[in-house]
Amino acid sequence: MESPSNWKHLRDILLMPFTVTFIVPYLLYDSKDDTLIPHTLTLKLIGWSIAVVGSALFVYTVFLFKMIGKGTLAPWEPTKKLIVEGPYRYCRNPMITGVFFMITGEGLMLYSTTILAWAVAFFIINTLYFIFVEERSMMQRFGSDYLKYKKHVPRWLPRLRPFKLLNS
């Protein structure tokens, strides 16, 4: 089982997370929008910290998709193996959590309520997508292993102790 090429990974990163973390915020940003959020160095540093943590989480999960899952982050090139390693031992969607943190960090760094609203919309859209599309696809691809994983690992809020799928 071979992982998709680095070009396919790059293509999918540019089409999806790059679009939602850079292009959409760029299009939404309006410097006149920043009057509701206090302009403090502390808030800007908190935003940077959240964005850096989100970026690290995103990069790590993309690495796991390539090395363990043998797929990309895109639904048209899904993983071939269920990933129950790293942050996936604590919550089912750490990649989306990373992207959400990146957008939230941007909103705080730029004092932008519009970008923060985009972060909330991104979260809601992905929650609905996971409930109605992704989880069904995972069930079809991974069967009882995914059911067991889904039963024990929360969608968003992380477990305190890591989950271990014994049959993998």
Shape: globular
Q: What does the main sheet amount to?
A: none
Give the C-alpha Rg: 17 Å
The helix-strand sequence is: HHHHH
DSSP summary: helix tally = 5
Organism: Niastella soli
Protein name: Isoprenylcysteine carboxylmethyltransferase family protein
Keywords: Membrane, Transmembrane, Transmembrane helix
Subcellular location: Endomembrane system
Defining traits:
mainly alpha, 5 helices, 168 residues, transmembrane, 0% strand
List the helices and strands and how they pair.
Blueprint: H1 6-15, H2 17-28, H3 41-69, H4 94-109, H5 113-152
Helix pairs in contact: 2-4, 2-5, 3-4, 4-5
Task: Report what the structure shows.
This is Isoprenylcysteine carboxylmethyltransferase family protein. Keywords: Membrane, Transmembrane, Transmembrane helix. Its main location: membrane. With 168 residues, the protein is mainly alpha-helical. Helices cover 64% and strands 0% of the residues. It has 5 helices and no strands. The relative contact order is 0.16. The model has no long low-confidence stretch (mean pLDDT 94).
Brief description of this entry?
The protein is mainly alpha-helical. 64% of the residues lie in helices and 0% in strands. It is globular.
